[in-house]
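Q: what sequence does this backbone want?
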């Protein structure tokens, strides 16, 4: 009979354990959510620049007389692709291009791509839809680049990396705690099976 009382006493602390789990799983950091959304907008802007530059390069090569503009557009596509890859913060890329870890450097690269996308626009008016798409893409990426530069100057990137590290540490601690609780329950079941 005392064993059953102990068994019942051991299962009583389970509700506080689940409340500690909910206490550890707090809401996501608002700054990190905003940064993820902004990275998405920047990536979409860079992808739009890639599309515009590809279309402009094809048009330039078809004309035959604008070969230099076509080559320029190909370089713009490559650099804009690099902007998209930089937004993923892929560790391999960040390892070799440390300047992209800093938001001011990343913003300057985006501004450069926006200027390249805007260069050599068609002033004759024969491709109004392409020029409109080009203006939208370059001004969106220019705005993203300016936000990155000013945020970098204000050290927002450093704050974001610090909070991101804390979030990863907290998530790992929650996973470790869940694993320990699961293992403890398994050991309790084995102990109860041995008692019977």
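A:
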């Amino acid at each position: 009979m005392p064993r059953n009382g102990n068994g019942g006493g051991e299962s009583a602390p389970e509700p506080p354990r689940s409340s500690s789990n909910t206490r550890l799983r707090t809401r996501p950091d608002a700054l990190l959510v905003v940064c993820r959304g902004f990275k998405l907008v920047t990536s979409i802007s860079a992808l739009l620049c890639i599309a515009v530059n590809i279309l402009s390069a094809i048009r330039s090569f078809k004309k035959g007389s604008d070969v230099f503009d076509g080559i320029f557009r190909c370089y713009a596509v490559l650099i804009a692709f690099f902007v998209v890859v930089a937004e993923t913060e892929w560790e391999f890329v960040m390892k070799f291009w440390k300047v992209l870890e800093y938001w001011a450097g990343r913003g300057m690269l985006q501004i450069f791509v926006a200027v390249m996308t805007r260069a050599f626009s068609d002033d004759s008016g024969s491709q109004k839809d392409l020029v409109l798409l080009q203006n939208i893409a370059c001004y969106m990426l220019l705005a993203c680049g300016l936000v990155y530069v000013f945020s970098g100057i204000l050290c927002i990137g450093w704050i974001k990396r610090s909070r991101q590290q804390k979030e990863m540490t907290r998530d790992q601690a929650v996973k470790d705690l869940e694993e320990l609780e699961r293992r403890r329950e398994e050991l309790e079941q084995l102990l109860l099976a041995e008692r019977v």
